[in-house]
Amino acid sequence: MTISKHTYRFLGSLLCLLGLLSGSAFAQTQQADSSYFEINGREDRRVTIPFELINNLVVIEAQINGSTPLKFIVDTGVRYTLITSLYNREVYLNSTRIINLAGLGEGEVLQAYFSEGNILDIDRVSGRNMEVVILQEDIFKLASFMGTEVHGLIGYDLFKNFVVEINYKRKHIYLYKPEEFEEKFEKLPRHRKWHEVSLFLDERKSYVNVDYHSPVTDSTVPLRLLVDTGSSNAFSLYELAHPAIKVPENTIDTFLGTGLSGDVTGELGRIPSIQLDEFTFEEPVVAYPDSISIRRAFKIGKRQGSIGGEAFRRFKVIFHYQNEAMYMRKNSDFGDEFHYNASGIEVHTPIANLPYYVISDVRKGSPAEEAGVKVGDVIQYLNRRPVESYTLNEVHNRFYNKEGSRIRMTVLRDDTARLEFNFRMKDELQLQMDN
User: Fold this and answer.
1) How far apart are CA 386 and CA 395, in angstroms?
2) pLDDT tens for residues 171-215?
3) Could you tell me the sign of the dihedral formed by the alpha carbons of 97, 98, 99, 104, in that order?
4) Which pTM was predicted?
5) Which of 74, 174, 232, 253 has the greatest CB tally within 10 Å of its CB?
6) Domains of the chain by range and CATH?
7) What value does the CA radius of gyration of the chain take, rounded to a whole number of Å?
8) Are 18 and 229 in contact (CB under 8 A)?
């Protein structure tokens, strides 16, 4: 599991690696799973849960043991509900003990708390006997890079109990009782706008098969990818996982994130296409973690990469774990081009929910660096609008425009100098095919 510190659009690009919680760490938890969700009140066939969409990540509110509302990223890549930070909130947890965690990245194994027998409330849905992992320190700093307090992640617990539909355009999650909707879901694959994609479930995770078009060999090969709604990027591929996976010629080096065990570095590149069942993603931007950072991932050896939110946001998606299927229907965003941060600027906020935005990284050789932007500059105006009128998510989106787009920015440097910058985006990931 990773949270990007510098390449925010790839925030969570490897969040799935909570799944690398070491087997030994959870050896004491491998009892029969007694947790379950139930719908409170009326016996509705569907429960509607609104969500925030922050850089392709689905964020919902939940309560643990009657706590004040907490915000969680809905992440198919995590096996256990995870609390990353409580921001001074009080949460009472049952039956807590210390465990060891291992994740993507270099560094020492981390310790966390493991709690059983908890109640997790999401709208009119209650989870009983829930297992929760709580980090001892906030190593991911989610609030700083999402602009709002985010307290953790929830994944398999939700998907194992319900058929889960995510409507990215309406920003709603719909939860269905599987036994009451078999007839409806059996009809979906025959609907001309819906397509059934096979899911492969293993150890609380789901995978799909795709066809990968290599820009280096100009060949197409099948790959298996982790389904990861907790990843904001479209795709991540592991070069060492398959001989056909090659890093494209035009790439940029980047810091991809911080994992449970340390930093994750790698490259961004563009490839000709990836095909998922009936759907072809043309010229997507792909993250390639370096081999040292992902050495732990290969110990489980069940995938060659992951597919995330930048791909899923182009659909209505229904996850039906009980049928080992995913139903997909294009929305109006399907034809959007795949962009990345062509400005080279990364921004964070030291105080959640306040429009105070500090430049945390400037990529070497980027348009921003060439214009003179520096780490520590505080943005005051962006494209002639006061920065107070932007959310952090909106600020990030301005840096993901296509080549040639202009950025006009006024910053405060060292609390004294007021500087203005004017530069244009350039695409450093233009696709080239070897002859």
Assistant:
1) 11
2) 999 999 888 777 666 666 566 788 999 999 998 899 999 999 988
3) positive
4) 0.90
5) 232
6) 2-178 (2.40.70.10), 181-330 (2.40.70.10), 345-424 (2.30.42.10)
7) 21
8) no
